[in-house]
N-(5'-phosphoribosyl)anthranilate isomerase (Desulfosporosinus acidiphilus), 198 residues
Amino acid sequence: MKIKLCGLFQNCDIDFVNEAKPDFIGFVFAKSRRQVSAEWAKAMRPKLSSVITPVGVFVNESVTTIAKLLNEGVIEMAQLHGNESEIYIRELKTRTKKPIIRAVQVISRADIEEKQDTVADFLLLDHGAGGTGESFDWSIVGQVKKPFFLAGGLKADNIEQAIRAAKPFAVDLSSGVETDGKKDRGKILEIVRRMRNE
Ligand SMILES: O=C(O)c1ccccc1N[C@@H]1O[C@H](COP(=O)(O)O)[C@@H](O)[C@H]1O
């Protein structure tokens, strides 16, 4: 099981993930209390362990901005968490060879069916707008054509149940590894250790 830890925004968060070594981390470039600037991400990128893949999280951002961050190597994957159309994703794919993740707000199984033929490389199934700390009903996931990240309110005490129910390619956590709105080193180390069955 792959693990992504999203919403790093403090310098110490880089130290926490370098110690834990999740497969992916996320920098949120969209408007959010976890929003980071391109300058900060650029400065943090060389400090990030080479075994961790950085993902940029965007909401209705310009294709040019995303392609620049990908092609400069600040991020290695782009997660589209807004209302980006298939035409938009096709355009982004003409500007970069790097993988694209399309987020889906899952209210019913129909939401997954509608998006699963996307030209994006991965889906990301989430409760809502992103970073809310709330979950959806994992039992409605069923078969999905694309490999998918499972997100939304995942934490130490529900993650095993979520994996059993939805069988994702990767799990994605943000609020669940925070305490008082900041990334928590202990929670980060614990969740990665659990996912690695150590
Ligand atoms: O984390 C954010 O602030 C955020 C803002 C805008 C779009 C997506 C965002 N995060 C994504 O939300 C899920 C995890 O959320 P949580 O565990 O429920 O807090 C994950 O995909 C993040 O990339």
In short: DSSP finds seven helices and ten strands in the chain. The beta strands are 2-6, 24-28, 53-58, 77-80, 100-105, 122-126, 148-151, 170-173, 178-179, 182-183.
